[in-house]
Design goal:
Strand order of the largest sheet: 2-1-3-9
CATH superfamily: DNA primase, PRIM domain
Strand content: 15-25%
Radius of gyration: 18 Å
Number of strands: 10
Distance between the termini: 38 Å
Number of domains: 1
CATH architecture: Alpha-Beta Complex
Number of helices: 7
Length: about 250
């Protein structure tokens, strides 16, 4: 984390209690399993609840998770599954490419750029956010897949994930995200260790991004990050797969 950056309990509550933050987390989590934790090591056990009852539940959950110290040792963070759920059954999933380089954001972002350039070549729609630790998360939303692929989604998901790993030539990609039940820190959640925000990054900001831009008091919600791909963009994944057969 940046030298001297530390959030007090009141600042954490104020951040999650801000209406735009709570509403954004609520909307993002409504078709996913969600969980709040200050220890990401517990996520391997699965669990979680189906979405949130309302935006008001979010600051309530944060308040319960804090231990009353003025400066907590770890921060409450929200995670959601990459899988999407409807009527309890999984209906699809986002692909998340997590560049997992500890304590070296420059190296992490350099490898992330290889993924971005590969996706840009095919005009595959994606979103980028900071993990809140040191690396980027590059997300292909489920809505980017054409309808023809959604009917056999599990096989397509694995294929696209492996094509990106193989063809982008990026290193330090976390392979655990090949599982659609995997949890990922939600956009605008704090990171448990650093207290930095898992903040969305626009493509034009990527090269100039620094972790200080993810400090909680610098954050404003950007709704455009959540915009769904239009129909003209949905064939890009098909083209990428056709070009990559035999990878």
């Amino acid at each position: 984390m940046p030298l001297g950056y530390m959030l007090k309990t009141g600042e954490i509550l104020a951040y999650y209690g801000e209406s735009n933050i709570a509403e954004t987390l609520f909307e993002y989590g409504k078709d996913r399993k969600v969980i709040i934790t200050s220890d990401p090591g517990t996520l391997a056990g699965g669990g979680g609840q189906q979405g949130f009852r309302s935006p008001d539940e979010i600051p309530e959950l944060v308040k319960k998770s804090l231990d009353g110290n003025k400066v907590p040792r770890k921060y409450p963070a929200f995670h959601s599954t990459v899988g999407r759920y409807g009527q309890r059954a999984q209906s699809g999933a986002d692909i998340v490419i997590d560049i997992d380089v500890k304590n070296n954001y420059r190296e992490a972002f350099m490898n992330g750029k290889k993924v971005i350039q590969f996706l840009d070549y095919y005009n595959v729609p994606y979103r980028i956010k900071f993990s809140g630790g040191s690396g980027p998360h590059i997300i292909i939303p489920y809505e980017a897949f054409p309808q023809s692929m959604q009917n056999k989604f599990s096989k397509t998901y694995q294929l696209v994930f492996q094509v990106i790993i193989s063809k982008s030539k990026a290193s330090h990609i976390d392979g655990s995200f090949a599982a659609t039940s995997h949890f990922c820190r939600m956009p605008y959640s704090l990171n448990e260790i650093t207290g930095l925000v898992s903040v969305p990054i626009m493509r034009e900001q990527y090269n100039d991004f620094t972790p200080s831009m993810a400090e909680a008091w610098n954050i404003k919600v950007d709704k455009s990050w959540f915009q769904k791909p239009d129909e003209s963009e949905k064939e890009a994944i098909s083209e990428m797969i056709r070009d990559s057969k035999g990878f």
